[in-house]
Amino acid sequence: MDIKNRTAFVVGGTSGIGLGLARRFVEAGATVVVGGRSTARVEDLETVAVDVTDAESVARARDEVLARHPELDTVVTMSGVMLAEDLRDPGHIEQAETTVAVNLLGTIRVIDAFTPHLVGRGTGTIMTVSSGIGFLPFPLWPTYGATKAGVHSYTESLRAQLEGTGVEVTELVPPAVATTEDAKRLNPAALDLGPFLDEALSLLSADPTPREVVVEAAQRLRWAEKNGNYAELLEARSQALANLPGRTPE
After folding, report:
1. Quick check: 65 and 33 in contact, CB under 8 A?
2. At what angle do helices 55-68 and 106-121 cross, to 10 degrees?
3. What is the Cβ-side half-sphere exposure of residue 151, based on CA atoms within 13 angstroms?
4. Comparing 41 with 135, which gets the higher pLDDT?
5. pLDDT by residue (tens digit) across 162-212?
């Protein structure tokens, strides 16, 4: 993928991995618009307000972006929330519904909004963002993992359906990435944002564009079942359930 000459809309690009990716695209010579609910905190990039849980907001954002940049050829869907849930408490449904609305339905809404434009051009790229947790669950965040597994599956079907249109589909599969100092303190094992972006962009820049962008730190999650250590890793991740209110380590 030649990043230099791209015109990209990065939805969910106002913070974290999305903002870092958007800035790297610009540094490489791309034209980038970032979208999100909190655009005021981004002063160095072109922005468009969008709430992926609202179909009308997504449609307005699409129209605004295409009016400014009719040459748009790349759409990245980064929006996501990660909420802890106690599945013994039926009240978790609120977190579950929010997670599905943002992570899965939000991804689908953005793709639906821009696919006709990209197909009409006969060329372009859609990049979805799943997670290592989509392949190896972290039981403290059950619906997050389920939605990211859903994004992976949806991406596979999207790629198959767009075959022959000139629109390529790639999936970014991040491991735990420390996008803030607090995140690094909470998870010292998380990959720092800079090295993650270095490796991810190196992989993404390959020709042809890879179907999946999986940095080294995410490989053990992506292929845990194949490698035979899925149960072991899942058991280790389940220890975090002791952090839920009223739980004690077993």
Report:
1. yes
2. 30
3. 39
4. 135
5. 999 999 999 999 999 998 888 788 788 899 999 999 999 999 999 999 999
| Residue 172 to residue 24: CA distance in whole angstroms | 15
Angle CA(107)–CA(109)–CA(129) in degrees, nearest 5?
A: 15
pTM comes to: 0.95
Cα gap 25→81, rounded to integer Å: 23
The tokens for 186 are: 């909470």
Distance CA 87, CA 228 (A): 27
What span, in angstroms and rounded, lies between the C-alpha atoms of 235 and 214? Answer: 23
Tokens of residue 163, six digits: 């075959």
Cβ neighbours for 194, distance < 8 A, ≥ 6 positions apart: 20
Q: What is the pLDDT of residue 181?
A: 82
Largest CA distance in the chain: 57
Query: Per residue in 9-21, pLDDT tens?
Result: 999 999 999 999 9
